[in-house]
Amino acid sequence: MAEKQDQQHPQWSSDRQIANTLLSGEPTDYNLSELARLRMRYNGFPGARDIQSDLDKVLEQWGLTEEALFAKTRQIHQTSQVYQGRNNQREDWS
Per-residue DSSP letters for 5-72? Predict the structure, then answer.
């Protein structure tokens, strides 16, 4: 059986910058939302191992589990518009 080769995600370059910002950032509502968005984007993605690893590191630095992160961000999105003024007509989950 042939080995599966890692793929390059089309958003890798911009997501790499976001991951770098998160690594040195604080768990603000915006940063928590970005972390959750990227966790969902790369969940099960066959590649971008560097980003996936760094997202794990951010969770650890901030003392969160993925479940706690998603619970917090659901609460954030229910009470405020984190992406206000950031082209919020465009959904960017893939």
Answer: PPBPPTTHHHHHHHHHHHHTS---HHHHHHHHHHHHHHTT-SB-HHHHHHHHHHHHHTT--HHHHHHH
